[in-house]
Design brief:
- The complex is a heterodimer.
- By secondary structure, chain A is an alpha/beta fold.
- Chain A is built from 9 helices and 10 strands.
- Chain A folds into 2 domains: 109 residues, 3-Layer(aba) Sandwich (Udp-n-acetylmuramoylalanyl-d-glutamate--2,6- Diaminopimelate Ligase, Chain: A, domain 1); 113 residues, Udp-n-acetylmuramoylalanyl-d-glutamate--2,6- Diaminopimelate Ligase, Chain: A, domain 1, CATH 3.40.1390.30.
- In chain A, the strands form 2 sheets. A 5-stranded mixed beta sheet of chain A has the order 1-4-3-2-10, sandwiched between helices. In chain A, strands 5-7-8-9-6 form a 5-stranded mixed beta sheet, sandwiched between helices.
- The radius of gyration of chain A is 19 Å and the shape is globular.
- Chain B folds into 2 domains: 153 residues, 3-Layer(aba) Sandwich (Udp-n-acetylmuramoylalanyl-d-glutamate--2,6- Diaminopimelate Ligase, Chain: A, domain 1), CATH 3.40.1390.30; 109 residues, Udp-n-acetylmuramoylalanyl-d-glutamate--2,6- Diaminopimelate Ligase, Chain: A, domain 1 (3-Layer(aba) Sandwich), CATH 3.40.1390.30.
- In chain B, the strands form 2 sheets. Chain B has a 6-stranded mixed beta sheet, with helices on both faces. In chain B, strands 1-4-3-2-11 form a 5-stranded mixed beta sheet, with helices on both faces.
- Chain B is globular.
- Chain B starts with a helix and ends with a strand.
Amino acid sequence: MTAREIVTRIQQQLASQKITWRTETVDTFKAGDPDTPIAGIATTGMATFSVLKRAAKAKRNFVITHEPTFYNHQDQTAALAEDPTYEAKQRFIKEHQLVVWRFHDHAHALRPDPLVAGSARALGWTAYASATEPRIYNVPPTTLGALAAGIARRLNGRAIRVAGDPAMKVARVALGPGYGVPPLTTAFDVAVGGEASESGGNSEYLADAAAAGQPKGVILLGHMLSEDFGMFEAGEWLRGFLPDVPVEWISAGEPFS
Amino acid sequence: MTRRTFVQAATAPILVAHQQAPPPQVDLTVAHFVDRIRAAVGAWREKTIDGFKAGDPSVALTGVAVTVAARLENLRRAAAAGCNLVITQEPVFYGANDEPGNRASDPVYLAKTAYIEQAKLVVWRFADHWNTRQPDPRVVAIADALSWKEASGNDNIYRIPETSLSSLIAHVTKQLGLRGGMRSVGPPDMRVRTVLVSPGTTDLTSTVARLKGADVVLAGEPREWEVVPYVLDAREAGAAKGLISVGRIVSEEPGMRACAAWIRTLAPGLRVEALPVSDPFWNAAS
């Protein structure tokens, strides 16, 4: 089967789950020849150079990535044309007959959203999901400090950032994947997600809420510690209708040391 | 007429009883003072996020407080210091355009607007025009805070005494008062001689263009699907590049202290306070 044929199967499967293929989407081929015969699929949070090297070694020459390959949401490459890093990555893709395709918009359209489900599973929170409120997890009551420390241990995160009073009591958590960190409101205690702009964002709201006597917390896992695990989930979904193609999750991992 | 002008007007005839009465002294209003800042800036953009965000600019100016982020605690400090004009780099109402949006009935938003009204503060945003002054005052202020003197040109790259990435991280952490906001890419023993300083949003295009001439980019807010994986991949492609991310607020803090000093030159005799904002983050693993 070629990469193009696999994408057609994915589109058919989405259609059978009542998810219409969008005309405007970033879910397109990003590199390599779509008509390359595929030995195996690697799903990943981000097709970093390191992920591509591991995929080639494992003979998973179709890399399905959630985030961009070339460092911007639209994967525009004009500004990168002469860049040695970009050129080395493209050369590696060509030499190893890799194909890279992005699965972002339509992955988030699946129900449950595998990016959220994967993050919840990685955090051990699947059983705490609210039956009625989307994104809300009712964790056993604890403090922000203990919650954050437990997350850091569980994900082995070196650069997980937390804002708020470590002693504050927490029980209601809102979880959003990637750049979709839930905006803080008075309806829950802690927002957990990947990354967010500080400009007018949660950390500013949190400072004002604390000053107004309403302690809140924010835990920023980092984009990959938030969405990488969800692409394992996406791989399980692929396996369900592509029984003849090996599917392996190759972790992009936390970029920071 | 404010209380002060009323008192001045009321006492003036007594003090100058036998002279020709001077023209009544008109207090400098907040709006007048902001006009003075705009005149000092030069050309003013048609489309800008800079402008008044809260309060009545026609009131008499009592003092100026300059800050990266007009958080409620800083508004209180401004009021306590007798400064009724708060100049802020970042939004006051949790969104790029300071529109409350879904938070219009949020108690935290309402507490903030109520405080601004009660304390009779005026909040004016000054980001677009401050950040685009040449050379970038945020870059100069960071270099100054880190005791870096030698810029290699006008590309925001500084030559520093050769050091390791870990020593550089320790220096930046100490001088910029970082806590959990410090994040890095690259091995601790990596040698560093040149640093690209890129505060605020560390965008991909300028980083790709300039990192050719520097070992490390000192970033404010690099997106984790843009500059962060670019540096990771550059390393994977064999280039000895590194990244230090300090966070947006921390990266703009020295620049707003410099802004306060600049505002002071426009306000002789007026109270001008720089209100610091610290790293909002701590590290979950520490």
